[in-house]
Specification:
Among the domains are: 195 residues, Histidine kinase-like ATPase, C-terminal domain (Heat Shock Protein 90); 120 residues, Ribosomal Protein S5, domain 2; 77 residues, MutL, C-terminal domain, regulatory subdomain (Ribosomal Protein S8, Chain: A, domain 1, 2-Layer Sandwich). The chain has 612 residues and is an alpha+beta fold. The strands form six sheets. Strands 5-4-3-6-2-1-7-8 form an eight-stranded mixed sheet. Strand 3 and strand 4 form a beta hairpin. The chain has 18 helices and 24 strands.
Length: 612
């Protein structure tokens, strides 16, 4: 007796729905992408009870006539591809024709649609995948889709859903991503009849990010600097050096308008930032790639979350170079800021003597004596205050002790402004932070982190010019690796040789290592080789030959850099700042910590209540 049987259409639809519809956010994603493909300029999404009760998506796209509306509910019915050749050049977000029938099979489904030229539209009601009714509709041009009682016929799937707040947060996150990816489209999100956010159409990505995340968040980003190449264009925003998150949640990457998660892109970001981020941290990224559709395969994941590039090395190098160039442009911005002189301080105008009536002088004298006694008990002693003579009509100024000289104070007859960079050194706070003034306000520099960056780049440059020191092994090491890692190492053998490795194949998935860089740790060869492969996968053609030794260099300079409590004189501080501004990445140490922090005048005015 045959053991293999065809599944009923109802069960097959529910199996297909399991790949497309994971939770309410999945429904919203598929419906919004259909609206975008339909050319909508406004998309409104409303949910109730986290989307488990109601999901409604309304757009003003091209709409459908009666025949297309009915056909759209059939599996693998689509207007976006016609043959297998079209799969090699997909330009739309949807293309499989599975979303609508999958959604309709696991909920109580309603669709009302009308083209802009039609007098009336079409309304279709579907219950668990079965069409209940088809009738005329008077809805506005576009498409309205409503999904009620999600997973009502799949209680096993419904019990895996989380709380209303959790499911709502997933829906909102998905909508925010789509809104960022398509700034020319207006988005409205309503939860339980309450407006959550409304994003009007904008002309630029910067305006959309400002509308959704605020102006302060936008100030932490840099616009991507990239020269378009044949068949490739990069744009968007990335976080400044040191601006990071502990997860990849804010690594937003779009390929031809499609939100994706791609390991090649992540390797490019990691290589581009390199020492500009602390280990374990991830950059904030809003990156958009426009590429020839024939060079990218989007049909490699059931939920279309991943893509595969025909030339991944080219994409990785382009992303890394774009990030590096963008961070370098920020260095140029810093240099321009420091080249502008600090705001001139107007001449101090002494206040005119205040005339105090004879009757109030005794009261003022008593309050000053009480304040002096309070300061003496709770704070450092204050100098004695001269008593007012009875015949005096003004208050004498309170004498102030002069500020004691410290090693950083420049001579009185020299300027505090550097001739090359117009920054003004104010002093040192806590024997660690250098206080400076520039055109924008106050700058704090960590002297230890700044010296680390200077020494790191100097030592790395020196060792690169002299070559990577290789240590010959008396007894060669044999390391067995996985076939995948073995292929990576053999392909990148030339790069490894430049880094100081001497190795050759030695049987199946086994390597014989005759020489290693002096920085390479050989206590656990297998672990070290796996770490080496991980580094190789993010490397580009411009990667430093001392990449494997940079951790050692960073630790070395950390021991020799200026420490906290090390007192510096004014010429030493000035030299430190000039050397820091000449570095490739002056705003972070080799470990990714910031070297300098800017506090603008507007921020200071807010803290002191001078403006809202």
């Amino acid at each position: 007796m045959s053991q293999i049987k065809l599944l009923p259409d109802e069960v097959a639809s529910q199996v297909a729905a399991g790949e497309v519809v994971e939770r309410p956010a999945s429904v919203v994603k598929e419906l919004v992408e259909n609206s975008i493909d339909a050319g909508a300029s406004r998309i409104e999404v409303a949910i109730a009870q986290g989307g488990m009760s109601v999901i409604r998506v309304v757009d003003n796209g091209i709409g459908m006539d009666r025949d297309d509306a009915l056909l759209s509910l059939e599996r693998h019915a689509t207007s976006k591809i016609r043959s297998g050749l079209d799969l090699a050049r997909i330009c739309t977000l949807g293309f499989r024709g599975e979303a609508l029938p999958s959604i309709a099979s696991v909920c109580r489904f309603q669709m009302a649609t009308r083209t802009h030229q039609a007098v009336e539209g079409t309304e279709i009601l579907v219950n668990g995948g079965k069409i209940d009714s088809v009738q005329a509709s008077g809805e506005a041009p576009g498409t309205l889709i409503e999904a009620r009682s999600l997973f009502y016929n799949l209680p096993a799937r419904r019990k895996f859903l989380r709380s209303d707040n959790t499911e709502t947060s997933h829906v909102q996150h998905q909508l925010l991503l789509q809104a960022i990816g398509h700034p020319s489209i207006g988005f409205v999100f309503v939860r339980d009849r309450d407006l959550v956010f409304q994003a009007p159409p904008t002309k630029s990505l910067a305006d959309r990010i400002r509308d959704l995340r605020g102006a302060e968040f936008l100030e932490q980003l840099l616009e991507v600097q990239f020269e378009p190449r044949e068949g490739l264009r990069l744009s968007g925003f990335i976080g400044r050096a040191g601006v990071s998150r502990s997860t990849k949640a804010e690594q937003v990457i779009f390929v031809n308008g499609r939100l994706v998660d791609n390991i090649t892109m992540q390797h490019g970001l990691r290589e581009g930032y390199h020492t500009a981020l602390m280990k374990g941290q991830y950059p904030i990224t809003f990156l958009f790639i426009e590429i020839d559709p024939e060079t990218v395969d989007v049909n490699v994941h059931p939920a279309k979350r991943e893509v595969r590039f025909h030339e991944p090395d080219k994409i990785r190098d382009a992303v890394a170079q774009a990030v590096q160039r963008t961070l370098e442009s920020d260095r140029g911005r810093w240099s321009q800021v420091f080249q502008k002189p600090a705001k001139p301080v107007p001449d101090r105008v002494l206040p005119q003597p205040v005339r105090v009536p004879q009757a109030e002088q005794s009261v003022l004298r008593k309050e000053r004596i009480e304040f002096q006694a309070l300061s003496t008990e709770s704070r450092t002693p204050v100098p004695p205050i001269n008593s007012l003579p009875v015949h005096s009509a003004s208050i004498d100024p309170v004498p102030v002790d002069p500020i004691p000289e410290s090693p950083w104070v420049p001579p009185a007859d020299t300027s505090e402004v550097s001739p090359e960079h117009q920054f003004k050194i104010i002093g040192i706070l806590g024997k660690l932070y250098i206080l400076m003034e520039n055109e924008q306000g106050l700058v704090l520099v960590d002297q230890h982190a700044a010296h680390e960056r200077i020494l790191f780049e100097q030592l790395r440059s020196q060792m690169e010019s002299e070559g990577v020191p290789t240590q010959r092994l008396l007894i060669p090491l044999t390391v067995q690796v996985t076939p995948k890692d073995y292929d990576w190492i053999t392909i990148n053998a030339e790069a490894l040789e430049k880094m100081g490795f001497i190795l050759e194949p030695f049987g199946d998935s086994t390597l014989k290592i005759d020489g290693i860089p002096q920085f390479f740790r050989s206590d656990d060869p297998a672990l070290a080789v796996r770490h080496l492969v991980d580094e190789l996968r993010s490397m580009t053609t411009t990667t430093s030959r001392l990449r494997m030794g940079e951790d050692v260099i960073a630790k070395t300079v950390c021991r020799h850099a200026i420490k906290a409590n090390d007192q510096l004189r004014f010429p030493e501080i000035e030299r430190l700042i000039k050397d820091l501004l000449a570095c490739e990445l002056p705003y972070c140490c080799p470990h990714g910590r910031p070297t300098m922090i800017q506090m603008g005048y507007s921020e200071l005015e807010k803290k002191f209540g001078r403006k809202v």
